[in-house]
Write a structure and sequence with these properties.
- The complex is a heterodimer of chains A (310) and B (269).
- Chain A contains eleven helices and no strands.
- With 310 residues, chain A is an all-alpha fold.
- Chain A has two domains: 33 residues; 213 residues, MetI-like (MetI-like fold), CATH 1.10.3720.
- In chain A, helix 4 runs antiparallel to helix 9, helix 6 packs across helix 9 and helix 9 runs parallel beside helix 10.
- The longest helix of chain A has 38 residues.
- Chain A starts with 41 loop residues before the first helix and ends in a 15-residue tail after the last helix.
- The N terminus and C terminus of chain A are likely disordered.
- Chain B is α/β, with parallel strands linked by helices.
- Chain B has a single domain, classed as Rossmann fold (3-Layer(aba) Sandwich), CATH 3.40.50.
- In chain B, helix 2 crosses helix 3, helix 2 packs parallel to helix 4 and helix 3 crosses helix 4.
- Chain B is globular, with a radius of gyration of 19 Å.
- The chains are: A mainly alpha (310), B alpha/beta (269).
- Chains A and B meet through helix 8 and helix 9 of A and strand 6 and helix 2 of B.
- The structure holds adenosine-5'-triphosphate (ATP) and magnesium ion.
- Magnesium ion binds next to helix 1 of chain B.
- The site of magnesium ion has 4 residues of chain B, from helix 1.
């Protein structure tokens, strides 16, 4: 892995942002997750989005249909792979009857609490540390190697330690989520701080800004494009932290639900859990996009960025 | 005591290959308080570098740089700097951009905003308070930058091609406006430009720099009467005479700089 300019602290190779914990966290570039705004007539746009929606629905129906037919014709073994009808039935049961661990809502709320708290704490820590190390050379020289080393170990293993050390409650899951979120946000905040236009800093200083005001008024907003890019995938990490923590040992939560379904060999339950997790992840993603658009209102519409997956 | 004084100042930059590049060599220049000094010279001769030395953004490698008699040791907030590149804050509205200086200097928000509105009126941007910089034209952004700097009423004002993004007409109007504003507080000005006409129309003194490494080639006193109207002064016969004299000094330097760049490309190709 080659070192980039920023004190060798940041990996610079653009890689798959999929949350695979075995690989070290890499930078998420600003604009990666930013949908390119198209300049088409609103009418045509509406028409287009309807057609797209119908096509997408069609794809889902075909896939699920094929799966169900496969199961009905015994081409697919539903013991191993579940079936759409069964997944749906499982969801209905969970909602109407409840789960073995209590009401479904409680499970969702527990997992959400862990993921959201982990996400918030990890992000805030990442932003503060990233900017501090980006601004204060001594700190980055001192702690840079440690952070790089910490980033290169598969952190998911820490889940086992946290479960033993902090118990089956929410605490151990939150800590795991924090650890997973922190690095992505940290490296982006650090890089964003290094990329701040030096002219803007010089201008602020000449206008009379103190060092703290420069950090708050110039560095933070300009690093925010980088930071927000990392927040998109960070919630995914937080969710993974919460779920893995629950699978490793918990009294409550969606991860436990998935785990017990697996233990009972009900694949429909595992898949139903996955569906719920996906809904949570997509909702969070939408909320983060809203936040991004609010915070980055000052930015000109992006013309680059390629075709973004919406 | 001169407002700005460079005494045989030299600036060397470290280059990527480990050597040094001399951008300025033994440059000596004095600007009195209330004097408007224009600096012209071929591209890359070190005009911007001169300003960074005076503002304290960079330190001279040798020689002395004094502002109001004191050696420059760092950024002095009584110096105003209008940058060559865009340096307004893209995430601040026009009003907040102009109000930045007073806010940083401890003014209350409401005071800063009232002052900023007044300056936006002076640079002709009333009605654009709530826009973001990317929603403005290049010329409007330059005017925001101007208001942002002038609102602090600097005693030393450094301007690096502030009007280069403007069309000829707006440029003339803004130049006249700048002279009015300058007349109100009379700071010492170093105004960098490529446009010799602009330099003569505005300045008390025009300094011609040599092709890099930059040093002062010649100084010309511009004794055209004030107040001046930039659009009209160029028809003055004295203006034409000064233009010819200064162009004579500048031409060989521009030619030299041009030859050098083309020579390099020939070698490279
Ligand atoms: N930070 C730097 N590092 C290395 N070289 C530099 C640096 N800043 C400027 N130079 C070099 O110093 C020389 C003078 O640069 P400067 O920006 O002062 O030119 P200028 O006269 O303002 O040119 P222009 O009219 O095109 O703006 C140039 O050759 C430039 O390449
Ligand atoms: Mg320049």
């Amino acid at each position: 892995m080659k070192d980039s300019t920023a004190g060798g602290l940041v990996q610079d190779s653009p890689t798959d942002p999929a949350p695979t914990d075995a690989t070290p966290t890499v930078l998420t570039r600003p604009g990666d997750a930013k949908p390119a705004r198209s300049r088409v007539r609103p009418g045509a746009l509406l028409h287009r989005s309807w057609v797209l929606f119908l096509l997408r629905t069609g794809i889902v129906v075909v896939l699920l249909g094929a799966w169900q037919i496969g199961v009905d014709t015994k081409a697919i073994d539903k013991f191993f792979w579940g079936e759409p009808v069964g997944v749906w039935q499982q969801l209905v049961d969970w909602v109407t009857i409840g789960t073995s661990q209590g009401s479904l809502l409680d499970q969702i709320l527990v997992t959400l609490e862990e993921a959201v708290l982990g996400f918030v704490i990890g992000s805030v820590l990442g932003i503060v540390c990233g900017i501090a190390l980006g601004r204060i050379r001594l700190l980055s020289e001192l702690f840079g190697p440690f952070l790089k080393a910490a980033n290169s170990i598969p952190r998911i293993i820490l889940g086992s330690i946290f479960t033993v050390a902090f118990g089956f409650g929410v605490q151990s899951k939150i800590i795991l989520a924090v650890v997973l979120v922190f690095f992505g946000v940290f490296f982006n905040a650090f890089q964003g701080t290094r990329e701040v236009d030096r002219n803007l800093i010089a201008n602020a200083q000449l206008l009379g800004a103190s060092r703290w005001r420069v950090t708050r008024d110039v560095v933070l907003p300009s690093a925010f494009t980088w930071i927000l890019a990392s927040l998109h995938i960070s919630f995914g990490f937080a969710l993974i932290g919460a779920l893995v923590g629950e699978i490793l040992g918990a009294n409550q939560g969606l991860g436990l639900l998935i785990r017990s379904s697996q233990n009972n060999f009900t694949m429909d339950g595992v898949l139903a859990g996955m569906v719920l997790v996906a809904v949570i992840a997509l909702t969070a993603e939408a909320l983060i996009t809203v936040l991004e658009n609010r915070l980055l209102r000052w930015r000109p519409p992006q013309s680059h960025g390629g075709a973004a997956v919406k | 005591m001169a407002a700005i004084e460079l005494r045989s100042a030299t600036k060397k930059f470290a280059t990527a290959d480990g050597g040094t590049y001399t951008a300025l060599k033994d440059i000596s220049l004095t600007v009195e308080d209330g004097e408007f000094c224009a600096v012209v010279g071929p591209t890359g001769c070190g005009k911007s570098t001169t300003l960074t030395l005076v503002s304290g953004l960079e330190r001279a490698s040798a020689g002395a740089v004094l502002v109001r008699g004191e050696p420059v040791t760092g950024i002095d907030t009584s110096t105003g700097f209008v940058f060559q590149q865009d340096a307004v804050f893209p995430w601040r509205s026009v009003l907040d951009n102009v109000a930045a200086g007073p806010t940083y200097r401890g003014a209350r928000r409401s005071e800063a905003h009232a002052l900023a509105r007044d300056w936006l009126r002076r640079v002709g941007l009333t009605g654009f308070e709530d826009r973001y910089p990317h929603q403005l034209s290049g010329g409007m952004r330059k005017r925001v930058a101007l208001a942002q700097t002038l609102i602090n009423q600097p005693r030393v004002l450094l301007m690096d091609e502030p009007f280069s993004a403007l069309d000829v007409q707006t440029r003339a109007i803004m130049s006249t406006e700048l002279l009015h504003l300058w007349d109100e507080t009379k700071p010492a000005v170093i105004f960098v430009t490529h446009d010799l006409e602009e330099a003569i129309a505005l300045a008390d003194k025009v300094v011609v720099l040599t092709a890099g490494p930059g040093t002062v080639k010649a100084e010309f006193r511009i004794d055209l009467p004030r107040p001046r109207v930039v659009q009209e002064i160029r028809f003055d016969p004295r203006f034409t005479r000064l233009y010819e004299q200064i162009w004579e000094a500048l031409r060989s330097e521009v030619q030299e700089a041009y030859d050098r760049t083309t020579r390099v490309t020939q070698v490279a190709s």
